Amino acid sequence: MVKNRQWRLISFPSGRPEASNWELVETEAPEVAPGHLLVKALYLDVAPYMRGRISPQPNYAAGVGLGEVMVGGAVGRVLESRSPGFAAGDLVVADFAFGWQEYAVLSPGDVRRIDPALAPLPYWLDLFGLNGLTAYFALFDAGAMKAGDTVLISAAAGSVGQIAGQLAKLAGCRAVAVTSSAEKAAWCREAGYDAVIDYRAAADLPAAVAEACPQGVDLFLDNTAGPIHDAAMQNLALDARVVVVGTASLADTFGAPDTGPRFLRQILVARATVCGFLFSDYAARHEAGRARLRRWYEAGRIHSKFDIAEGIASMPDAFLRLLTSRNLGKQLVRLEGD
């Protein structure tokens, strides 16, 4: 019987998560039920949304309970299929249903078959997965991005941000990055951003945004909340749009009231629109968005950087690396032997 190593949540973080919140256990790989697939992970996803899933506070999706396998996506290989639509050897991607483990039994509805000839495997958890579609729909739909906009993007060197900056340039916009180090700033410039703000080096962040966006911010893609959000709100252009995709800076304060500054006057004067964004709201259009992203990728107009850790044992450390902004590009874990 194949052994399956998996990470289970054993305690809820009281603040910032620690490796001790999870336990690595070894079990037997589950049997394949009729109509299902046994999949072996090749790459496991590491994503900011996972922080919200390990809080006992209410969230937009069900959380991970104590003793349960940590949620997450994966690219994997089908080892056994009891579904007529798949065969052993097929490569598939699961956006959420796989979990932090080496093997999973999945239903056909949990996975998509992928073509490694089109793009390397990591891209299927990035540009052609949650991150690419988030950037695409948040900008073009929720944010009504149009040519000539000044688009400000926080966490600009991360998984969503690096794609969003390139999409903004493809749309004929001025793309302005907010990131957290000189190394990340260099990657943002390489990815095509017109201006880059290192918020940790900025003595006055609102002034730095004003300098980088002299005509104001037409569209703000907010991946962080917190002080970066505050700086953007003080620099809104007329008819600005603010799309809240993530709140990474508030990740350790779930359930606490948001007592930061309020910007109702700025919203009023700019006649701005502020909205929240969830990837799942666009499920009916994911394939159309993915097809457009694929055309840009095949034309060589979008590329990604990856930060890849090795082995199932590295999952908690890779996740903490992401939460503390030490990753450069999309964070993934590659399993041993693959």
UniProtKB/TrEMBL annotation:
Task: Check the record and name the SMART domains matching this protein.
Answer: PKS_ER
Positions the record marks as coiled coil are none
Q: Which one Pfam family would you cite for this protein?
A: ADH_N_2
Domain Enoyl reductase (ER), residue spans: 15-333
**Keyword annotations of the record:** Oxidoreductase
Q: Which GO molecular function entries does the Swiss-Prot or TrEMBL record give?
A: oxidoreductase activity, acting on the CH-CH group of donors, NAD or NADP as acceptor
Record's protein name? NADP-dependent oxidoreductase
Query: What organism, scientifically named, is this protein from?
Result: Xanthobacter dioxanivorans
